[in-house]
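Notes from the pairing session

We agreed to fold both candidates in a single pass and log them together. This is the raw record for the first candidate, unedited. Please don't reformat it; downstream parsing expects exactly this layout.

Candidate A
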Amino acid sequence: MDDVKTRREFEISNIDKNIKIIQGVEVVLLQEKILILEKSLKEDKKYLKIINSNIKENSNKNPALAAISLIQIKDLRDSISDKSIKLLDLKNEKQNLVNSKVNNLIEEKNFLKSMLLPYSYKNTKIVGDIIISDNPIKPKKKLIVVVAFVTGFILSVFVVFFLQFIGSFKEEDKQ
């Protein structure tokens, strides 16, 4: 019983470690990734505004620069849209870590703690005396003999009626 208790306590300590790792490392790393992505997204948006203002100024002077600026604008918009999607995915992953994984681990930890409570963890005890009968319970020889006799009688009566039935068919065929 002590082994079970120490194993459960070990499982609880492992769950605590996993919770600390998730909250201390994984969530922090995801938060840093989110901040870096948000910063990069802001820089791309600023750069897009600069290119838009330059294209308005240079579109009349040099059409080749305007075409290159349009290509840059398209690439920046694609980049902004990809980064926005990645940002949403990272925020969703962070939320799942915080809500789902941590809550599941806490629930599992509480369950294991409840199994260690005194009313669910105690040694076995004998409630009453063991009762031994002098007469065997199985096999009941008298009952087996009676059932065999009744079954044999019923089957013999059935065979007699069946033979009589077949005999009457043979007599009808002869006539």
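Candidate B (folded immediately after A)
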Amino acid sequence: MRISVVTPTHVSGGFLDQAIASVPRWTAGEVEHIVVHDLNAAGAAALSARHPHLKLLQGDGTGPTAAAAIGYAAASGDFVLHLNSDDHLVPDAFDRLLACASERPDIDIWTGGTRIFRLNAAGAEVTVRRIVSRAATALTLPNIFDDLPCMPARFIRRSVFDRIGTLDTHFPESSDREFLIRATVAGVSEAPLGAMVSELRQHGASRTMSPDRIAVPRYLDEHLRIAERWLAQPGIPEAIRRAFRNWRAREALRLAVSQMRVGAWRMAAQTVAQEATTDHLWWVRAPSALAAWCRRRRS
């Protein structure tokens, strides 16, 4: 078996070196580690000198979503795994994948567990959350809508990208969620790996794992646009359409609350008014945010 690990980055050293070091030198199969970077020539040369086993590709400078898509397109492994430049892989995950995929070659996505951690003032790791239960990790619309997509915990067969496409650069803040929504609706086969796969670092500079709430999250507006795109499609089953309506309603509520939190009261009022006009049952659907809140706090 050959596994492709794809890491988009715009930095050299620091967290990136730790992420690269966490990818095991696997003896039971082959590992292809692709790093798609936006570094200058000197930075790329230094990275290559430190890690000569990497397959380095130049990004187009438009951000991590486009960089990851470049990496996925170049991947030659049987399975592809996304590794952010500030995260870690768990050493035994590859062996577990080999065992599971050999037993069930019909499965296209194998999902493991993940741990979110941060460093305390003393520099020691503190676990913020563990996402390990099948209820929390299964590839279902409620999980992908409302919890972390956990892309770095999912080994995706390369043929899935040929079947449903790769990341959509129209959604740079939530392209992983949008991709996994497509995979779920398309009925891509998925099963639990039964092992930890990744460790996600929470820190202030992270685009996705920052603990700070100093601004309105940009991904919320993207969630509304993703829902709009699906709701505009004719012929989708009513149950799926209803799920997207409910998701849009609760994400609009989250957006309004985030806007109020930063003092943008007029924008919050406009968000609520627009949603109430677009969907006259918005007030009925929005309370589904409570169940979504509970989903985001499971282990």
